[in-house]
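#struct-queue
[09:14] JT: dropping the first one here, sequence first, then the structure tokens:
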Amino acid sequence: MATIKEKVIKVFQNRIGSGFLREEIIDLVVKDYSETNRASVIPSDYCYNMVNAGINFDFHIFESLGEGRYRCLGPNHCYTGAIYWKGESVGEWKDGRYRLRQNAPSNLIRRIEVDQWIEPR
């Protein structure tokens, strides 16, 4: 059985550049994979510019545009922009590589593999 990540990749592979509401993302995945629990599809967990301290920061396909809106960028996008946790900037992407700030919350730092730090703001 496919993982949620595999399902999301498959459903959105031909939708790069398109915008979606949170519910639309969930609906599209469940439409193609009816056995999927709606609560298991969490678009914010798959964003380049948002991090959740409770999961690994290892799968990115969307950019959060705020207020439950997302843009599909696809996996391995050469993203540049800030990374937010609970509305606070905790790092940044530059040309497809991310770095965290040393003042990022410790529970977040423990969950993310970081090879480069940036100075705190």
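[09:21] JT: and here's the second one, same format:
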Amino acid sequence: MSECAQTIYEQFGGSRAMAMIGGKAIASESALVIHFKGCRKVNMVKIDYDYGMDFYGMTFYRFSGVESREVKALEGVYAEDLRGIFETETGLYLSL
């Protein structure tokens, strides 16, 4: 996992958050894609880091089979807001 993806993973809540949502993380150079269970509206989120602006982008998808549909995209997200936005959009909690 790249250093950037590892940082996003830790800011999102790490292995504890993944356990809470049944999530699986896939890393790229400057993004983290998380597949999760328990939400009918969306089941995948991509978190991108924008080096120039020092913000994150969050894109929520509904993935079924081999097809994915973008449900909502957010830009200009601060690191401390990642968890709260995820919980608001999905209704899933990342901690007890």
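[09:30] RK: nice, looked through the second one.
[09:31] RK: The chain has a mean pLDDT of 93.
[09:31] JT: good to know. The helical segments are 3-12, 14-21, 82-90.
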